[in-house]
Amino acid sequence: MRKINDLVDNPEVLNDFYHVKQEAKARLAAYIKETTGIDVSTDAIFDVQVKRLHAYKRQLLNVLNIIKQ
């Protein structure tokens, strides 16, 4: 962490970080468009939570999906 802290004010590192972040946001926006048909701006703030679902929760979600259809 100390080594990373030394790079906080380095404009080249910050620029590289920004570009990597924008590329990831573009991939996520493309995935959202492909799976839902919704266009999202890569200028928006993305807040994503990924959590592993236990088997019983997946089963419940499958049952609810069947009921919904």
Describe the structure.
This protein has 69 residues and is mostly helical. It has one domain. 64% of the residues lie in helices and 0% in strands. It contains three helices and no strands. The chain has helices at 2-5, 11-36, 55-68. The mean pLDDT is 89. It catalyses: [(1->4)-alpha-D-glucosyl](n) + phosphate = [(1->4)-alpha-D-glucosyl](n-1) + alpha-D-glucose 1-phosphate.
Give, in order, the helices and strands. HHH
Count of DSSP H/I helices? 3
Structural class label: mainly alpha
Compute the number of strand runs: 0
Short description:
One of its GO terms (cellular component) is cytoplasm. This is Alpha-1,4 glucan phosphorylase. This protein is 64% helix and 0% strand.
Write out key terms for the chains shown.
69 residues, mainly alpha
Summarize the helices and strands and which ones pair or pack.
Layout (H helix, E strand, L loop, with lengths): L1 H4 L5 H26 L18 H14 L1
